[in-house]
Design brief:
Elements: H1 8-11, E1 29-30, H2 42-49, H3 53-57, H4 65-75, E2 82-85, H5 88-99, E3 105-110, H6 115-122, E4 126-131, H7 140-145, E5 150-154, H8 166-175, E6 179-183, H9 197-200, E7 204-209, E8 222-225, H10 228-237, H11 245-256, H12 258-281, E9 293-297, H13 303-312, E10 315-316, E11 328-332, H14 336-355
Parallel strand pairs: 1-10, 3-4, 3-5, 5-6, 6-7
Antiparallel strand pairs: 2-8, 7-8, 9-11
Helix pairs in contact: 2-11, 4-11, 5-6
The structure holds pyridoxal-5'-phosphate.
Length: 356
């Protein structure tokens, strides 16, 4: 039993459940939390090694200006269009506090990133899931009908990998009086993105993460792009020093090495296409993905069994015990070797099923 002096909202809620993280030395094929299979740029490690003791003794620049300047060049915006965060989860927390707040309402197509309802709950706001239309098309009218203060839209979506064209999101923003947050954690693996919408729409915030695209999940760095008067308000809400000196130096080095990151994106796209073909060929229907993972329908709906059967072979994938997802497994695209291990693991399951 939780102590009685805990806020009733907190006592009554379930926290976010992250994917399993085995110890660093453990020998597993880890395809469960959408990490980049390749390492970060060598320039990131160099930037970390070059940190001066003085940079640690002092407080960091409160707004990560070194990073904002580099990111502004990359996206053809100005630094005051950018806010940095301790991972894009921090950006989402800041957004929820800035745009929704207690008694407010957050709408999102469902299923999606399971952190959204947790963030709403933490702020005593209401989470309003709206089912996707057929083939994960955006339920525009149903989202508008919620009269929410904000709509959160992961694009590509997690855990489906599906992608909504930017023009559709722009049309939604044009009809909506609240804020549209486009969570682009996976967008570098996709064909298009929504940064251009920010110029036209005051109510669009685009959030990005360095965790997947730049292989820096352990560093914790994300950012958002929006019009200046929106960023100014978000700046009031963030922790004073939400990004530490080491992460700012490392994140800046990472985005300055586009060539290194791009290579991993190209590999992921090629392997995603190979894996989708292989799995479809085996009768494991794959939902077309623009992310660095694929959501796969398990034959006979035996997803839990497949997840456990793979785990026994030292292969981790993600299983969600939720309606609409509990007949599927989500597989992160790894190195060619890891992906082959997964294909082998799945074939073993078939053999086991047939023998049983
Ligand atoms: C991984 C993920 C994030 C969080 O990214 P961090 O920068 O690691 O906090 C945000 N949104 C979605 C949809 C994600 O999958």
């Amino acid at each position: 039993m939780a102590p009685p002096f805990i806020r009733s909202t907190i006592r009554g809620m379930v926290g976010y459940t992250p994917g399993e993280q085995p110890g660093l030395g453990e020998r597993v094929v880890k395809l469960n939390t959408n990490e980049n299979p390749f390492g970060p740029s060598p320039r990131v490690l160099q930037a970390i090694r070059e940190i001066e003791p003085e940079a640690l003794r002092r407080y960091p620049n409160p707004t990560a200006d070194e990073f904002r300047e580099a990111a502004a060049k990359l996206f053809d915006v100005t630094p005051d269009n950018i806010i940095a965060g301790n991972g894009s989860d921090d950006i989402l927390t800041i957004a929820t506090r800035t745009f929704i707040g207690p008694g407010g309402r957050l709408a999102y197509p469902d299923p999606t990133y399971s952190l959204y309802p947790v963030l709403a709950k933490l702020d005593d706001a209401e989470a309003v899931p709206v089912p996707w239309e057929k083939n994960y098309a955006l339920p525009v009218d149903a989202l508008l009908a919620t009269k929410a203060h904000a709509i959160y839209l992961a694009n590509p979506n997690a855990p489906t990998g599906t992608f909504i064209p930017p023009a559709t999101i722009g049309a939604l923003a044009g009809k909506f009086s609240g804020l549209v947050l486009v969570d682009e954690a996976y967008v570098d693996f996709a064909d298009d993105h929504c940064v251009a919408l920010v110029k036209e729409h005051r109510n669009v915030v685009v959030s990005r993460s360095l965790s997947k695209a730049y292989a820096l999940a352990g560093l914790r760095f994300g950012f958002a792009i929006a019009q200046k008067d929106v960023i100014d308000e978000m700046m009031k809400v963030k922790d004073s020093y939400n990004c530490d000196a080491i992460s700012v130096a490392a994140a800046t080095a990472a985005i300055l090495d586009q060539e290194h990151a791009r290579k991993s994106w190209e590999h992921v796209r090629a392997e995603r296409s190979r894996m989708s073909d292989e799995l479809n060929g085996m009768g494991w229907d794959v939902i077309p993905s623009q992310a660095n993972f694929i959501l796969v329908n398990v034959p006979g709906g035996h997803a839990r069994e497949a997840y456990l059967g793979l785990k026994k072979q030292g292969i981790l994938v993600r299983y969600f015990d939720k309606p609409g997802l509990n007949d599927k497994i989500r597989i992160t695209i790894g190195t060619a070797q890891e992906n082959n291990a997964l294909l082998g693991g799945l074939k073993n399951l078939h053999v086991a099923e047939k023998a049983a």
